[in-house]
Design a protein that fits this description.
seven-stranded antiparallel sheet, 4 helices
């Protein structure tokens, strides 16, 4: 005969698994998925450009081309402190990964983009998951913001903004 705790633990496990499936989790990694009405090749090319990363990251971080095709990521933290690291681009079967380490850190950092065809030929589904030196960079709401801005740039050529603009038009 099983104890009540056994059944509670089993129920928690089942609920966790169901929530993971509903939000599109793979292996428990936090991430976000968004559909962009552009062909997969165009979306992948967009994310290879460090300047595009800087635009969609906005005030979160800046990305510059580094030596030998690497990417240099910089995040301004409170005060004048800047946190930086380098990554290499690795192509995967269904997307790409930016993989690197930060000197002094014990673990790797990565940003993974997975691409799949959206249903009914509606473009490309993009999933972004990340493990970065900053727990809040490119996770949860920040990952959604990056994908939202990327979609806006790819579909309209502009990033929506609430910044003051006397002409009442959005600017990138």
């Amino acid at each position: 005969m099983h104890s009540v705790d056994h059944y509670v633990d089993k129920a928690k496990s089942q609920v966790s698994e169901l929530v993971g499936k509903l939000v599109g989790g793979s292996g428990g990694e936090p991430g976000q998925t968004l559909t962009i009405t552009r062909p997969r090749a165009q979306v992948a090319l967009f994310f290879r450009d460090p300047a595009n990363w800087s635009r969609v990251l906005g005030d979160l971080a800046e990305v510059r081309p580094g030596p030998e095709g690497s990417y240099e990521w910089s995040v301004r933290r409170s005060g004048a402190e800047t946190l930086s690291w380098n990554t290499e681009l690795v192509d995967d079967e269904n997307g790409m990964r930016f993989v690197g380490t930060r000197s002094g850190d014990s673990g790797p950092m990565w940003i993974r983009l997975e691409f799949s065809d959206a249903p009914n030929d509606l473009g490309t589904e993009v999933r972004l998951a990340a493990h970065t030196p900053l727990p809040d960079l490119l996770t949860g709401a920040a990952a959604f913001t990056v994908l939202y801005r990327a979609r806006a740039l790819l579909q309209t050529g502009e990033i929506p903004t609430l910044a003051h603009n006397p002409s009442a038009r959005t600017t990138a």
